[in-house]
Amino acid sequence: MTKFSATARAGVVAVLTMAGAAGAQDLPDTLVIGTEGAYPPFNFTESDGSVTGFEVDLANAMCAQMEITCEWVTQDWDGIIPGLQAQKYDAIIASLYITDERREVIAFSDKYYQVPSRFVVPEGSALEISAEGLSGAVVGTQRATSFERYMNANMPDVDLRLYGTMDEAYLDLTSGRLDAVIGDVVAIQDGFLGTPDGTGFELRGPEFTDPEFFGYGAGVGVRQDDQHIADAFSDAIEALRENGTYQDISEKWFGLDVYGG
């Protein structure tokens, strides 16, 4: 009886061990990451076709932490989620905000940065940043973004112009075809105000952080069946925060920590 019980216990342990191994989902040796490649300084394309930026450096560090290889492909922003669902790539790392609406169609890692949004206007502009103050104003932003959703919901009297990239919106702002542009504070500061084209323009108005529209920070997006990949990225983000690599990369690109509160 004692011998039988010990054997039975050993069999149960073996079955449970095999079940656990079968349930575990290992990461592939290589992950393909989709990004926009047109959102400096977070991600942008060099003259040789390679992608670089804060998110590229951070993602490569995360992949090194996970001991896998990551390859990069670029995708126009308005097709970034459809491209993931069509299996053109395994993950999105492209300043994609984590929102409840997006969680209905894809899964996310924990956030890897979080910054507020603001408007940029010409210096000396009489615009007041409010629903009333912007009534009738021509405002630009990138299509299929949280900025578009926020404007449509909260400032319906604005003449909203949508662009494929933020650079296109900045171009129309400098040409006088727009009165203002709304976007990420850090992206505006580094991608526009910090360039010669940004001379004569300034940030104005309050910082916008409403989770309903601007989410809970930017996260790594994956297909819903690949939550284990998102979890691996979450673990890597935590490890890079703990060992200081995250802070070093953020300091390199922004001179500050953009992880957020």
UniProtKB/TrEMBL annotation:
It is found in: Periplasm. The keyword Membrane does not apply. Residues 30-256 form the Ionotropic glutamate receptor C-terminal domain. The keyword Signal applies. Keywords: Periplasm, Signal, Transport. SUPFAM superfamilies: Periplasmic binding protein-like II (SSF53850). GO terms for cellular component: membrane; outer membrane-bounded periplasmic space. PANTHER family: ARGININE-BINDING EXTRACELLULAR PROTEIN ARTP, MEMBRANE-BOUND LYTIC MUREIN TRANSGLYCOSYLASE F. This is ABC transporter substrate-binding protein. It comes from Roseivivax isoporae LMG 25204. The lineage of its organism: Bacteria, Pseudomonadati, Pseudomonadota, Alphaproteobacteria, Rhodobacterales.
